[in-house]
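Take a look at my tokenised protein here and describe the backbone shape.
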Amino acid sequence: MLITDINHQIRSFLVASFLSGNAERLRDDETLLGEVIDSTGVLELVGFLQERFGITVDDEDVNQQNLASVNSLVSYVSRKMAA
């Protein structure tokens, strides 16, 4: 799967689930935690990533580094899918 496809799917999920369809509010380098999603949202996001991309998100992977922004999510998913 291409990086652009991963990016599009993650952005679409975030916009639909947390921003009421307001895509203009989401930048790829913007901090997500506390700004776009809360702790319950993290659980929804993890569920989405696992279901949509067929990856397993380990507990230790749920951290600021991997979930900080759309860019970091795309990078994380790409690494997991390549493994």
Summary: The CA atoms of residues 31 and 68 lie 5 Å apart.
